[in-house]
Amino acid sequence: MLVLGLGALRPLGRPFYYHQLPLFVPQTEAQRLLCFQPLSLNRAREEELVLVPGIGPSLARAIVSLRQKEGRIDSLSRLKDIKGIGPKKLARLESYLKVP
């Protein structure tokens, strides 16, 4: 975890500015999800995909195996090739996943 900024350690009596607040910069895909940022579908590991609502261990394993078998996933619509992901589930997952 990387935290930038030391504004909280300012001496008393000096003015306070919001840009001095510590800034959290997510380093892993799981931390991105906790910061309400979508996971990269091509970089997320199985353990991180399980954190997405609607994706269980078997579905995460299937996504990772699809990525390993066919290479880089260029579109979220490719997830429809996986058994258990239809149009409704894909629509729910779109806000949690991204393809750069």
From TrEMBL:
Coiled coil: none
GO cellular component: type II protein secretion system complex
A biological-process GO annotation: DNA repair
GO molecular function, one term: DNA binding
InterPro entries xref list: Endo/Exo/Phosphatase_dom_1 (IPR051675), Hlx-hairpin-Hlx_DNA-bd_motif (IPR003583), RuvA_2-like (IPR010994)
Pfam (any one): HHH_3
Name of the protein in question: Uncharacterized protein
